[in-house]
Each structure stands twice: as structure tokens, then as C-alpha cells.
Write a structure and sequence with these properties.
With 504 residues, this protein is of the alpha/beta class. It has 16 helices and 17 strands. The chain folds into two domains: 6-51 and 131-388, TIM Barrel, CATH 3.20.20.140; 80-127 and 399-471, Urease, subunit C, domain 1 (Roll), CATH 2.30.40.10. Helices cover 30% and strands 18% of the residues. The strands form three sheets. It has a nine-stranded mixed beta sheet with strand order 3-2-1-4-13-14-15-17-16. The two termini are 34 Å apart. The relative contact order is 0.17.
Length: 504
């Protein structure tokens, strides 16, 4: 297939790696810096911990007391029990009860607990979903239908259509002459998109992320439970020597449990993408903390090389298929024994939610001849994802003593794992993060908290209650994002009318 056009006539994407292609952009370096910080860099450096800023992690294991606490949510010391089909780490319970108190899971029983406010959901109760690949600042845009097949990410990032679709709107929202940036509203809008799809933890914040303390949805790159356990890199060739040294020190000391890095994102015939992996595999950062994102150009020998050092893989099939018309050889990765998680990537080319992405993943797994059950698929966005993130001791499993990060889905299939695999965001009935109800059915919200404090939203033809105030101050920016989704939406649309809808 001939992928060359007049737009890249002077470039050879077969031999130029993504960093070299990016360096050819004929734009003002100062103008590029802010965009590159959000789009191309990641979070390679250590952030000040919550403790160093005077905050104190919750002793119960729930939300760390960084920034401001929510004014709504569960009443302290007043437990609530949720009944339904419960997905546990290794099995499911057809009729179980999950009791939440003080932000943590207090108990999981097969009998309805006595003396506790109880809600029989009739649904499937599972750990909050963990999306291990995204770019939150950019999840406000509408989906992109690429006009052609690209050879690697450097090629589409240098295309005029990418500038028109992403770079120019981003500039309009963040640097529109003398107008203040609305980046805080952008990230909060993206967090709402994640949470209404059942995600309670996401990956992909950049150094430009406006709130590096824990925000509405847990961000595994930033401060989580009062500390930072990961670093992320989009382009390895852009890392400074001191960044490499800093990440290496963190890995060796054990403070960095995961290093997310975009690698080999391109067609399987693209040697430049393969070379990118080969260069990284010779670096001191290649090891057990390595979490490769994409790896579309890699083959079984490369996956064996990853497995030998304990590396992991995050897969985003929808974005791969849209951009390259092919995706990662996950059968080879699984045969090599690699731990695997799924990420929805970003709205321009990925899926609108992790639940959507699971449908693409399930189809691709079947087409590649992988014998992956719905139970394993669910693990890829819960327990296995948590382990890959270095947070398996806190997230991804429903067990007493863990933070109450959980989701309740409508029950439409007998098998609970099949139900999760088939679910869409419109099936999400309740989302808790650290025991706080962020999103849920208004009748359930009123039973356990002050329902009037929640914003009423119309979600896929039904009324739902949403609370976006965690981490938001009483006043509007510059101190933080607006406190209501309606205000966030209005602020964004007033600057860029083509904002992509959340409830689509």
C-alpha cells in the first residue's frame, strides 16, 4: 500500500522515526512548547508528594486528603450496603452484598447485612474500571475519521489534518490571544467522560495537567493515595538525560513501579517503529517497570524480549485500526506471557469509553484466535490493569479494607462477566471513588447522601445525578475548574463550539 502523499513528500516515514518527523515541523519553537508538553512529553519527572504539601493521606485507605475534600458523598460512619451480583478477584457471587463505610469496603457477604442502610441494585457490582492509556486533556474533541492510512504516529502528527483537528482547537482553548486558558475545564470535562463510563482511574496526564493533586478520577501518573508511583513517556527520544536518570533512580529505589512508554506505534512493516523499540530495549529503563503502550509493530521475538525482563503491554485496538488499519499481535503477546491491559486512548482516534474499547478488543482477540474469556477481559480493565499500574494492593479488586472504588452496571446478561463485556456507558448505574458517589441513579443517591447537592444530568435518555465538585473550589478559575458540568460545558463551547459530547 502506498501511504505517501504530497504532504510528506520530503519525508520518508519508512526510515524516519516519530521524533525525527516531529522535529521537521516548521513552526515557532516557543509556540510549540506548551502543546508539546501536553501532547508529546508525558510525566517523566517526580512531583511533590501530597505529604510535602501539608496534606495527609486518609488513614482508612480511601481518598487522600489532598486539595479540598468533597462536601457531598457518604455520611461519615454511616455504612451503606449494595446488593447484586458481585465480581470478586477470582470468582463472582450471584447474590452478594458489598458494605462501604468511611470510604473503604468494610465487608462482602452473601447475606444482607443487618442494621445497615441497604440498596438492592439488581445489577453487577465490580471494581472501578482502570483505563491505562489515554490523553485526558484531548478527550474533549469529537472522534476523527482519518482520511487515509498512516505508517506511524510521526506521520499523522505532522499532517495538516491533525493540525486542523487537534492542534489549532487546542491552541484556541488554551492560548486564545489574551484570554485565559480553560485547560482546567478541559481536564474536568474529560474526567466526567471517564467516570460516566465506569472508569475510576485513568492514565495519560501530562506535565501540563492543571491539578497534580488527586482530582475527580484517580490518575495513575500523578499523585494517587498521596504519592506518585509512575512515570510516563510519549516519545523516548525527547527525554532529557536527567529525566532518564531520574526515572532509573525511581525504578531502582522501588518508588517508580510503572513507566508507561509509547513504543512501536506504527504498521508492522515500518522499520522505524521497530527501531524505536530496539533503541529503548538497550536503555537502562527497559525492565520490570516498563509498560509498553501500543507495540503495534512488534512481533513474537520482541514480546519474548519484553517478557524476559518482566515488562507489560497496554493495548488500544480502536485507535490502531483507525490510524494504521491493523493492531497489535496480542496473540503473540499473550503467548509470550505478557500481562495485558486495555486503554481507550483518546477521542480523536480512540473509543469514547473503556467499555466501548472492550468490544473492539473482544472482537480482535477472537479474530486473532485468542481463547480469552469474558472473565479475563474484565481482569484486563480491573485486577490485571491494577497490577500493571503497580497499584494492585489498592485498586482493581473488591476486598474488605480496600478503597471503595466500584461500579454498578445494569444486569442484562446472566453471566456477570459477559454482562460487563457487553455493557455500554448507558448501563452504568452508580460509580463510587473512595466511597464518594460521583455518579449514580438519583433515587439511590438520595438514599445515602444529600441528593439536592448533586447536578441532575440527562444521560442517554434518563436522569442521573453527577457530582463534579471534588477538587473544585467555591470560586471559578483560575483556582480550579467550574463546579458544575453545565458550567464546564458552557466555558468550553464558548471558546470552541465543536466540543465533542459526553453523552453520545
Amino acid at each position: 500500500m502506498d501511504n505517501h502523499t504530497a504532504d510528506d513528500a520530503t519525508l520518508d516515514p519508512e526510515t524516519l522515526d516519530p521524533e525525527t518527523l516531529d522535529a521537521t515541523r516548521d513552526t515557532d519553537a516557543g509556540e510549540e512548547a506548551a502543546f508539546d508538553a501536553a501532547d508529546l512529553t508525558g510525566v517523566p519527572r517526580a512531583l511533590p508528594s501530597a505529604l510535602s504539601s501539608g496534606a495527609t493521606p486518609s488513614s482508612s485507605g480511601g481518598r487522600a486528603s489532598v486539595a479540598l475534600q468533597r462536601r457531598a458523598g457518604l455520611v461519615a460512619n454511616e455504612p451503606v450496603a449494595l446488593g447484586g451480583s458481585v465480581i470478586l478477584p477470582t470468582r463472582s457471587v450471584a447474590r452478594g452484598w458489598v458494605t462501604v463505610a468511611d470510604g473503604v469496603i468494610a465487608d462482602i457477604t452473601s447475606r444482607k447485612p443487618a442494621g445497615v442502610r441497604a440498596i438492592q441494585t439488581g445489577g453487577v457490582i465490580l471494581p472501578g474500571l482502570i483505563d491505562l492509556h489515554g490523553h485526558p486533556e484531548f478527550n474533549i474533541f469529537a472522534p476523527w475519521e482519518p482520511p487515509r492510512v498512516f505508517i506511524n504516529r510521526g506521520q499523522w502528527r505532522n499532517s495538516p489534518i491533525y493540525r486542523k483537528l487537534v492542534r489549532d482547537p487546542w491552541d484556541q482553548l488554551t492560548r486564545d490571544n489574551a484570554a485565559p486558558s480553560v485547560k482546567k475545564a478541559m481536564t474536568r470535562y474529560a474526567e466526567v467522560r471517564a467516570v460516566v463510563g465506569g472508569a475510576t482511574a485513568i492514565q495519560g496526564a501530562s506535565q501540563d495537567y492543571p491539578n497534580k493533586a488527586e482530582a475527580l478520577v484517580r490518575n495513575v501518573d500523578l499523585l494517587i493515595f498521596g504519592t506518585q508511583v509512575a512515570r510516563s513517556t510519549v516519545d523516548f527520544g525527547r527525554l532529557r538525560p536527567d529525566d532518564v536518570a531520574g526515572i532509573q533512580r525511581g525504578i531502582e529505589s522501588g518508588s517508580v513501579r510503572a513507566h508507561y512508554i509509547h513504543l512501536a506505534e506504527g504498521a508492522k512493516t515500518n522499520q522505524a517503529s521497530i527501531n524505536e523499540f530496539l533503541r529503548f530495549s538497550e536503555s537502562p529503563l527497559f525492565g520490570a517497570a516498563t509498560v509498553v503502550i501500543h507495540g503495534t509493530a512488534l512481533s513474537r521475538s520482541h514480546f519474548d524480549q519484553m517478557a524476559a525482563v518482566g515488562a507489560k503491554l497496554v493495548w488500544s485496538p480502536q485507535s490502531n485500526l483507525r490510524l494504521y488499519n491493523e493492531t497489535t499481535d496480542v496473540k503473540a503477546a499473550l503467548d509470550a506471557g505478557l500481562p495485558l491491559a486495555i486503554g481507550a486512548d483518546w477521542m480523536p482516534s480512540g473509543s469514547p469509553s473503556l467499555l466501548h474499547e472492550m468490544k473492539i478488543a473482544q472482537r480482535c482477540l477472537a479474530e486473532q484466535g485468542c481463547n480469552v474469556t469474558s472473565q479475563r477481559l474484565v481482569a484486563m480493565v480491573t485486577s490485571e490493569a491494577a497490577d500493571i499500574a503497580g497499584l494492585g494492593d489498592r485498586l482493581g479488586r473488591l476486598e474488605p479494607g480496600r478503597p471503595a472504588d466500584l461500579v454498578v452496571l445494569q444486569r442484562q446478561h446472566h453471566d456477570p462477566y459477559d454482562n460487563v463485556a457487553a455493557a455500554y456507558p448507558s448501563w452504568v448505574e452508580l460509580v463510587m471513588i473512595g466511597g464518594d458517589i460521583v455518579y449514580g441513579r438519583p433515587d439511590w443517591v438520595r438514599e445515602v447522601t444529600v441528593g439536592d447537592d448533586y447536578e441532575q444530568v440527562s444521560a442517554w435518555g434518563r436522569h442521573m445525578a453527577l457530582d463534579t465538585r471534588f477538587g473544585s473550589p467555591d470560586e471559578s478559575p483560575p483556582n480550579g475548574p467550574p463546579r458544575r458540568l453545565a458550567e464546564i460545558r458552557q466555558q468550553l463551547i464558548s471558546r470552541y463550539p465543536a466540543i465533542g459530547p459526553i453523552f453520545d
